[in-house]
Amino acid sequence: MAGATDAIRALVRTIPDFPRPGIQFRDISTLFLDRDGLAATVDALAATVTGPVDLVAAIEARGFAIGGALSVRLNAGLLLVRKDGKLPGATIAEDYALEYGRDRLAMHVDACAPGARVLIVDDLLATGGTALAAVRLVQRAGGKVVGARFVIDLPGLGGGRALDEAGIDVVSLLAYEGD
């Protein structure tokens, strides 16, 4: 997998001082543009999953691109976790803190059947607030979170540790220290 992660890393660009001074933004839109890189990313994430998955819970917005492809690869459904107010119909929602403030995630109230095995997926793991909100939503619906997968981890911000402390199996393909 080292060769695959090196190739994936080469497709991620860094944009300095975005969204504010001092932040090194890891942009995966360049990875999405490369069909081989995108395929390698989905393959590498799928290879980390053991056991059956009923649903891939993809977090808005870049998580949708990875989650949709991964759900097909894992023969699972796709559960959309969106910013509150963007889904029609009845929803449940969770507030969470993120590195720049607060926000709220929602999912359809009937999107996850009790007992469903759910894999959380997003592009980037920072403080873990967004992923933990998604975990809480799935658990409130009666689903069982079987893990969380990310393309990029910023380990210095503690998100992996927070998910681990919550009992969630976490795998990230790339890590960028000091960001």
UniProtKB/TrEMBL annotation:
The keyword tRNA-binding does not apply. It is found in: Cytoplasm. One of its GO terms (molecular function) is adenine phosphoribosyltransferase activity. Its main location: cytoplasm. It catalyses: AMP + diphosphate = 5-phospho-alpha-D-ribose 1-diphosphate + adenine. CDD domains: PRTases_typeI (cd06223). GO terms for cellular component: cytoplasm. Pathway: Purine metabolism; AMP biosynthesis via salvage pathway; AMP from adenine: step 1/1. One of its GO terms (biological process) is AMP salvage. Its EC number is 2.4.2.7. Gene3D superfamilies: 3.40.50.2020. Catalyzes a salvage reaction resulting in the formation of AMP, that is energically less costly than de novo synthesis. Homodimer. This is Adenine phosphoribosyltransferase. It comes from Sphingomonas xanthus. The lineage of its organism: Bacteria, Pseudomonadati, Pseudomonadota, Alphaproteobacteria, Sphingomonadales. The gene is apt.
